[in-house]
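A quick aside before the break. I want you to see a complete sequence-to-structure record at least once, exactly as it would be stored in a machine-readable document. Don't worry about memorizing anything.
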Amino acid sequence: MSGGGRSEGSSEPDEVWAEFLRTSGDSGGDVPEEPSARAREAAARLRTEPSGPTPWRAPTSPTPSDPFAGRRRRAKGRYVAGFVAALALLVVAVDPGGVIGWSDGPDRTSTPLAQETARPEQAPPADEDGRATLADPFRGSPAARWANGTAGITVPAAKATGWMTEPEVERALTATRDFLAAAGLDPAVLRGGRPEKAIALMNPHQKDVTTFVSTALSTPSEEYDPLMLFSRFDPAQARPVGDEVRTRGRLTYREGERGAVEVTADVTSVHPVAPAGGGDEVVRVVVRRETIVSWDDPSKVVTEKGTFTLLSYKLDMTNGGCGAPTGYFRPEFGGGAADTGTDSGRVVDPYDRTTPVGGGRAGCGTATRS
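That is the input. The structure line, written in tokens, reads:
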């Protein structure tokens, strides 16, 4: 605005403006202000244009919490035809240059999401074209906008908690994220390797956990399933597509028992895979885990420096296999088969992070997308 209160870029000629000021002053201020051409144009546009759309929020169905750590929920990766309707959403994003417009802004499917800092209030919207390809394995998936690897895992700012100083809490958070990477994102582990780096971060004096890990990796079963902690594919059955695993989730922490720092990780990872024998079919395995670890005070708990105590673990997975545990995810190719398991009527959206992990019964259901 100029010093005289005149809108910059006014369309009124200087002579007209001067005459208006002169006549207004002569009338003692009783003459009403004449709206400018710009104001008249804006008023006409407001009379003819409709108001903006009403915000839409998807309804959610809360899932009962699961009081038992280690419970598994599985869902086959079959699409449910016609399950999701197309929705027209208005997304307005503010940037330093102004407001991204209705049609001139970037494509929603290619705009990276900001990091997750709290549990979302609704599931991500559906995409009409959900078929993955070798060249674009995340096509049609909400993960197309997620970050790769540990970049998609939000690590909160550290502050002194329990027995740990601020720098020590920061190291504990970083080490927890490193465990998630070594357990579920390491390329060698994904191709069936042994998760040695992840195991090295676990307290070797926690005998129940060391027994679980060694038994699960050697002789997997319903009771001892390594997929509860580690993501692995049988190289004879499936091969990863590309070198990216898209992730979304966050770490939180608090003071636990005996002054320990208790860290909770809630992370979803998306793995595109193809048949090991070749071919261009691509399916996605979606894995969500909640893992709670305790960084204990060594003066109060028997532990080793740089290791944590595992408190609990939960798993939800889509298209990871519904048969007896083999120690590997076993995605279905060729369109899938009939549902099996104890909960075949249940429908699951694997990208819905609005509810806690492991809220359903064990068994297999149907996934709305993958």
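Two observations worth writing down. The first strand starts at residue 72 and ends at 76. The chain has six helices and twelve strands. We'll return to this after the break.
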